[in-house]
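Obj: model holo form, ligand = EPU.
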Amino acid sequence: MTIQENVSLKTYNTFGIDAKAKLYADVQSLSSLKTILKSKNKDALFVLGGGSNMLLTKDIDALVLHLNLRGISIIEENEDYAVVEAKAGENWHEFVLWCLENNLGGIENLSLIPGNIGTAPIQNIGAYGVELKDVFESCTAINISNQNIRTFTNSECRFDYRESVFKQELKGQFIITSVRLKLTKKNHKINIEYGAIKNELQSIGIDNPGIKDVSKAVIKIRESKLPNPKEIGNSGSFFKNPVISKSDFEKLKINFPNVPHYIVSDNDVKVPAGWLIETAGFKGKRFNDYGVHTKQALVLVNYGNAKGRDIHELAILIQKTILRLFNINIETEVNII
Ligand code: EPU
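Output (holo structure tokens):
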């Protein structure tokens, strides 16, 4: 494995930020990953997957390990289910398409999410009524300190809304090397409760959709709202949707009677951050080479050569404004590096 010096990461992060790696290695096998972890101090390493959930605000003064472990295989199956294993470096959307071609159902609602399969569990990717945790069987991960391989079951990952143990207690301690999902071979559970999917399917005249139809509808919705990172740099939703108490929600409704919301529990209400940002007047705002997407206020964008620092400052301005106007804290979903 060759180690290169002073490598631009612009094409390795979906925000398209031109930060530099002091050292860079393309890691294609588990054995080379183990060797390098053994020989290096943990602080001198930076692990990069699909680069789809990060904002680089500075150069990386470390050895960037670009995880490129590849391979997809069916591990076990019966008449109803197949357990599919994909190595961490497989592109998420290409994996979804592979599953659709093999008539495996469960992740069609997660079509077109950027990033790699190895990073999908870290933030429990989710869209249109489905989350990774709904089909997740297990993952294997290497302990950075002692290079032992450990398997994490679904419950051990402690998945929650855009959360897992890998973002909390075990942050920075493990590198996920492969993921197993349990997918249906027949009687697919078609999930079109999310309003926009139903409408999209109706508009193309499909009453009895299969998994490929659902995927097509999701792709169409995403393409209409979310910028394609190959054309405009972005990391999807920059913020999480905040959960507030019922009493705070009642107060909010006095001034904003039409605020969209979802009831999470008896005491909690989720408010779309996109609505808060749009109502605060940021939607479509452009500052030089960066700004807030025109069609989805939750997405910050790089129109060309923006600096990560500038986008971070915009994010902080948005957070402060939302706090002042609505008394709500919105947390970033993207990792700020
Ligand atoms: N809204 C606005 N203005 C906007 C954007 C949204 O008012 O600019 C309102 C909409 O009118 C709607 C509500 O917010 O009432 C929800 O909007 P949408 O259905 O687009 O979903 P979201 O809450 O903005 C979440 C996920 C997305 C995921 C969609 C669909 C988070 C942080 N984001 O967005 O995930 O694709 O639901 O399931 O939960 C991602 O994580 O990168 C991502 C794109």
